[in-house]
Structures are given as structure tokens and as C-alpha cells.
Write a structure and sequence with these properties.
13% strand, single chain, alpha/beta, 15 helices, 4-stranded parallel β-sheet, 394 residues
Length: 394
């Protein structure tokens, strides 16, 4: 039963009023979100975010078995925050996979219990509508049950414009070719004041939202992200969250929100200091509190580290992404904590259990594959002294 009233450590009537809204299931306003960002202390934010997290999911913490397929890191765009891409004039520093190359990567997982392939990369003319339509068809012909989560609106916008195809027709074609869902990338910050400075030239915030809305109307699900901790302020973050919440009210097509921390290694914004762990946790918490119509908040562990991913589970996060299997370079090249991002199922399960949460393997659409609550690996046995439960091999 929810308490009728809660005292907060900061005797601020605004914070007390917002706290009561959250505990009583009342949506907070944009002004409330600004107050939380600017005036709430971390314990209060953690308590409120955890209340919402546990109201939706209890102790369940989700992960999946996935791998990333990155067609190229050569890109026409010059986003100032990006450490991953290389300009065409520096092609020798990057890679450009053919369809056959990518199918070889897919086939290398034939004997592994992965459920999802996550496909994103740079933008180049040869990666056009036909190329990706053929790729999706080839993946489905080879492994029909593998969920294809592929491409951002940045990529779709470019290829559809180049091929003179409407968003509606293009997304319908992608669905017919085997596309199952959209990742959340390319959102960056929607506010044009900031977007034009860090990601000028590629699709606008409105176009990003439009492509996701069209996909939702086709019956598809997608994720959403926000790149934070660079030159934006709290107002820009709230504006971004507001546009996502409005679209979710309209379509209900978003599954997960993933805050992505700006990392400053080897890019044009290396002079911008990275924000602190406190700001990371604050951002997770306010996102969970504000996005009341999103089912899930994800911490992308390859970006923030395993330890911080564990801490985030007390600040509204209920998903830690997947096994990855060292198949993504997008964040390691930007100076993320994980330079070789790969975790086994055993490691993910142990990470979740050691902070008192219940590990649940899911598929991309959050259908439960396995609840690992009563499964004990050797690492768990050594850590907790379990003797009675069955120990299984990885």
C-alpha cells in the first residue's frame, strides 16, 4: 500500500508535491521534471524512480542474447560527438562490409542461442533501400526466427530520400523484407538549437519522430534514446523526453528508453568534460519518473560499465541490454568503460543477482525466455554459498 505522505530530505514543498504525485500515480509536468533535475537529491530521485520501477516490474531485470552487425563506420555525416565514424576521405581507417560479409557474420552464430541481431552503422550511398531489403530477406531466409532490429531514422531518411521513396512506402517495404523492430539510435537531442550544433545535416528531430510514428502505425515496436551530458542543458533534456512521451501517448509503440552518455574520446567535442556518475544516475531516475508510459528503462552496460549498470538498477533501470559478444565498436571507440564489450549469460545473471534483482532473459519484444531466479551458476555458488539449487554450465 502506498504511503499517503512522504518526507523528503530537502524541505522543499515543490519536491514534496512532486513526490506525492509520483507515489499516487499522477503524471509529472515538464516543470516538475526541471525541479527534479535541478533541486532533488539523489536519494529522493532513487526512491521515486525505484518506486515506479518496482510498480511496473518488481525485481525483474531483463536482458537478451544478441549480437551487433555494423555494416560500416564510414559515414557522409560529421556529427561532432561521434568517435565511431570515419569520413570517406579516410576510408582506409574503416570497414565497408558487403552483403556476403554480413551474412558470414550472421552464420557464425548459427549454433548459438542468440535471439536478436542489432544492425546499425554509417551512412553511405551503396547502403541503399535495395541493399538493406536484400540483407533482411537473406537473414530471414537463413534463420527465420532471428529478430532483426535494424537501422535508425538517420539511415532510413538518407536512403529513402536518395531513392525517392516516401517514409511510408519505405518502411512498409522494410517490414515486408523482414524488419522486426527499430533500435533507438540517431535521436541524439531533438531540440534544433543543440541538434544543429552536434548533428547538423542528418535527419531532424521531427523526422526521427515521424519515421518511428509511421513504423508504429505499421504495427512495429521500437526503442528511443537520448544522448546526454555534452552541451545540452536540463531544459533540452526535458524537451526531448516530452516529445517522446507525447508520441508514446499517441501510438504506444515504444518499448524502451535508453539514455546514452556522451563520451569525449577522439571526437570533435573532446574538450567537453564528461558528466559525473551522479548526473548519470539522476538522468536515469528522472527519465523513469517522467516517462510513465514507457514500460522499460535500459542501461546500456557497454557504455557505462558493469558496476554502474548494477547501481542503475536502484535508479529506475530494469533492463541491461544483452550479451553483445564483443560485436559493437560504437562505444568502445568513444572511450567507454568497456573496451571489449562482451558478457556471457552467466556473467549477466550474476551481475543482476548480486544487487538483489531477479534476472530474466527476454526476447526483443519482452517475451520471457527464461527466469534465472532459481538457477545458480558456479560464480553464484561461490559468492553466496548455495548448495541446494542445481548448478548449470554456461
Amino acid at each position: 500500500m502506498q504511503p499517503a505522505f512522504i518526507e523528503v530530505s530537502n524541505p522543499d514543498k515543490d519536491l514534496q508535491d512532486i513526490s506525492q504525485k509520483v507515489l499516487n500515480g499522477i503524471r509529472i509536468s515538464n516543470e516538475d521534471a526541471m525541479i527534479l533535475f535541478e533541486r532533488a537529491d539523489l536519494p529522493l530521485l532513487g526512491m521515486l524512480a525505484n518506486h515506479m520501477r518496482e510498480k511496473k516490474h518488481g525485481d525483474a531485470t531483463y536482458f537478451n542474447r544478441n549480437f551487433h552487425l555494423e555494416p560500416t563506420n564510414i559515414c557522409l555525416y560529421t556529427c561532432t560527438f561521434c568517435s565511431y565514424s570515419r569520413l570517406i576521405k579516410k576510408r582506409s581507417e574503416g570497414w565497408e562490409y558487403t552483403l556476403e560479409d554480413m551474412m558470414d557474420i550472421v552464420k557464425s552464430y548459427d549454433n548459438q542461442p542468440v535471439t536478436e541481431v542489432h544492425i546499425v552503422g554509417g551512412v553511405l550511398p551503396q547502403y541503399d533501400t535495395k541493399f538493406y531489403s536484400d540483407l533482411f530477406k537473406a537473414i530471414k531466409a537463413h534463420r527465420p526466427e532471428l529478430h532483426i532490429k535494424a537501422l535508425t531514422p538517420v539511415e532510413y531518411h538518407y536512403m529513402f530520400k536518395k531513392d525517392k521513396i516516401s517514409y511510408e512506402d519505405g518502411m512498409a517495404l522494410m517490414k515486408e523484407s523482414g524488419l522486426d523492430s527499430l533500435p533507438g539510435g540517431g535521436a541524439e537531442i531533438f531540440h534544433p538549437e543543440i541538434r544543429d550544433q552536434i548533428a547538423g545535416g542528418k535527419c531532424s528531430g521531427d523526422q526521427w519522430l515521424q519515421i518511428h510514428e509511421i513504423w508504429h502505425k505499421l504495427g512495429g515496436k521500437s526503442n528511443a534514446t537520448m544522448l546526454y551530458g555534452h552541451i545540452e542543458n536540463y531544459g533540452h533534456r526535458v524537451h526531448h523526453l516530452d516529445l517522446l512521451r507525447q508520441l508514446q501517448d499517441k501510438t504506444g509503440g515504444f518499448q524502451t528508453f535508453i539514455p546514452l552518455k556522451f563520451r569525449n574520446k577522439d571526437n570533435q567535442m573532446s574538450h567537453v568534460p564528461e558528466v559525473s556518475l551522479i548526473d548519470d544516475l539522476k538522468n536515469y531516475a528522472v527519465s523513469r519518473i517522467y516517462l510513465d508510459n514507457f514500460d522499460h528503462i535500459k542501461a546500456y552496460w557497454p557504455m557505462i560499465s558493469r558496476d554502474i549498470a548494477q547501481i542503475s538498477l536502484s535508479f529506475g533501470v530494469d533492463d541491461v541490454d544483452g550479451t553483445i559478444d564483443d560485436t559493437t565498436k560504437i562505444y568502445s571507440m568513444a572511450g567507454s568503460e568497456e573496451q571489449n564489450p562482451a558478457m556471457t549469460t552467466e556473467q549477466l545473471v550474476t551481475l543482476i543477482k548480486r544487487v538483489g534483482r531477479r534476472p530474466v532473459e527476454r526476447d526483443t519484444l519482452y517475451n520471457v525466455i527464461c527466469d534465472y531466479t532459481d538457477v545458480v551458476f558456479e560464480a553464484d555458488k561461490a559468492y553466496k554459498g548455495y548448495l541446494d539449487l542445481p548448478v548449470i554450465a554456461n
